[in-house]
Recover the amino acids of this structure.
């Protein structure tokens, strides 16, 4: 979701999904909407109903339109290479875009800085100088088929499998060649289908959204089986902006409303909607007594946004507000750039420990503290400030099995770890650093595990960790996730599972301040329950 109030501010700058030459960047956006429309129309004519258009298709189509933007240009060497593909090959590439389970390209490891730089240069040489690979990458049926040599591609998840060593120019060119052929096939097949020269491939037309889980699967989930994986099609009417696990249910946030949802259910009901102004809940947590703390932003009469902290009882009745004014910095933020609406900041993460202390991380606090710790009445207990470690919007915060609050953080070498917090002293304790591979980007979920002390989710995948162990265990890599990692919502459940919430379609709306935002379409939103067990 691209809303400026999205709780998760993605730290993806270091892991590019698709490498595009600089010369192409400025021309992509102008062709994107037209390509998207053509692809949808093609699919509708073939199947009689709209077909879900994936992000990978849109990105690929945007690049494809660039290839034919100048009709009078001479046919280049790479164009001749594209036109040499027979219809069987065109359909094969075309179907791969539609049938991939994940909607964007993925890698089994990040590209090095050298590989990124060389791939950009090679992509420019491919188009401009006709520099092609001598061979092709290996198409894999299963992830286990990859033996660590050369470059492989698993179509079902859109994953490039790369050797551990630095890739050669030949291997990088094979990736570039594959992308160009796939993108050209998308354009060419759409043209042929439009003109009646080809039919929409059956393999691509048969792709459907995730199916509703059976009653037996739901019953198994309700029995508390922490190993049960579950996919649910959302049947409620809320455009969801955030999801949080309470003690015995889920809380779903949307503009001006908060819903409650049973674990394993596909529907939600209004829990609280008595907001005084245009509001959005940005963070939520529930204590052991059932009280619910809401971090939110409210639209003021002058058009600015102000952060707030409200408290509800377990039944959704308003109890009180906690005044954040004493903790706000004098700095005023601007939403959408220097000329955007003014804001006092927002709360990104919240947690509450067994003693009832409330932990807040966000923007707009005095002294740029890593975290504020308040008591039940909103009085300041301590601040967490540490020059050696830092945490950001995607650094997870959660309560462990010992009822202490733990935070994900980075050291000066940008290595990732977790630490507990001493609220009275305002210090970090039980610091466990460098517990995951160096290329792990973030943990934006930290929660108690079922068969380990912690379960953690970030852009590199799902991890399990016991305090004292030198390393965390990677349970599931990001490319194996049943939905796209970027743009999904996620939280840890009390039984040690991780819940991901993702939408396949968005709609554009305008808020009360006149700002356009993209919202998840409720009927195109899906809930994915992932086991956090080791050895799965």
């Amino acid at each position: 979701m691209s809303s400026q109030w999205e709780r998760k501010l993605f730290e993806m700058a270091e892991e590019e999904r698709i490498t595009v030459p600089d010369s192409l960047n400025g021309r992509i956006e102008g062709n994107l909407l037209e390509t998207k429309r053509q692809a949808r129309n093609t699919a509708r004519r073939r199947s009689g109903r709209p077909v879900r258009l994936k992000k990978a298709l849109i990105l690929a189509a945007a690049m494809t339109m660039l290839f034919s933007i100048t009709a009078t240009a001479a046919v280049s060497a790479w164009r001749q290479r594209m036109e040499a593909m027979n219809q069987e090959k065109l359909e094969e590439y075309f179907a791969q875009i539609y049938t991939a389970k994940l909607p964007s390209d993925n890698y089994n490891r990040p590209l090095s800085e050298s590989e990124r730089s060389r791939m950009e240069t090679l992509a420019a040489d491919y188009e401009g100088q006709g520099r092609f690979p001598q061979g092709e990458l290996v198409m894999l049926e299963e992830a286990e088929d990859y033996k660590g040599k050369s470059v492989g591609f698993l179509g079902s998840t859109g994953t490039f499998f790369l050797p551990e060593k630095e890739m050669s120019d030949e291997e990088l060119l094979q990736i570039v060649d594959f992308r160009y052929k796939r993108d050209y096939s998308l354009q060419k097949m759409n043209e042929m289908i439009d003109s009646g020269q080809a039919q929409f491939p059956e393999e691509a037309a048969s792709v459907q959204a995730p199916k509703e889980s059976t009653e037996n699967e739901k019953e198994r989930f309700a029995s508390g089986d922490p190993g049960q994986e579950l996919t649910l099609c959302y049947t409620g009417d809320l455009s969801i902006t955030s999801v949080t696990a309470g003690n015995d249910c889920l809380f779903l946030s949307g503009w001006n409303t908060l819903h409650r949802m049973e674990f394993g259910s596909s529907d939600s009901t209004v829990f609280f909607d008595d907001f005084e102004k245009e509001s959005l809940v940005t963070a939520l947590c529930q204590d052991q007594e059932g009280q619910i703390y809401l971090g939110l932003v409210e639209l003021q009469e002058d058009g600015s946004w102000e952060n707030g902290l409200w408290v509800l009882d377990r039944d959704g009745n308003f109890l009180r507000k906690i005044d954040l004014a004493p903790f706000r910095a004098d700095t005023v933020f601007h939403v959408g750039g220097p000329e955007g609406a003014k804001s006092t900041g927002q709360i990104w993460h919240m947690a509450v420990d067994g003693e009832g202390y409330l932990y807040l991380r966000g923007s707009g606090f005095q002294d740029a503290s890593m975290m504020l710790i308040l008591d039940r009445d909103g009085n300041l207990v301590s601040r967490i400030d540490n020059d050696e470690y830092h945490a950001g919007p995607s650094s997870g915060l959660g309560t462990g099995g010992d009822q202490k609050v733990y935070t994900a953080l980075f050291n000066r070498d940008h290595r990732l770890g977790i630490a507990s917090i001493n609220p009275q002293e305002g210090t970090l304790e039980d610091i466990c650093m460098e517990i995951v591979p160096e290329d792990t980007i973030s943990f934006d979920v930290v929660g108690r595990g079922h068969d380990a002390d912690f379960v953690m989710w970030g852009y590199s995948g799902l991890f399990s960790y016991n305090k004292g162990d030198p390393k965390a265990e990677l349970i599931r890599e990001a490319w194996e996730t049943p939905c796209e990692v970027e743009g999904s919502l996620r939280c840890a459940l009390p039984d040690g599972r991780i819940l991901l919430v993702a939408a396949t379609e968005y709609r554009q709306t305008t808020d009360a301040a006149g700002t356009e935002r993209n919202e998840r379409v409720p009927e195109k939103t899906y809930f994915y329950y992932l086991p956090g067990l080791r050895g799965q």
Observations:
- Residues 1-75 have pLDDT under 50 and may be disordered.
- The two ends are 31 Å apart (CA to CA).
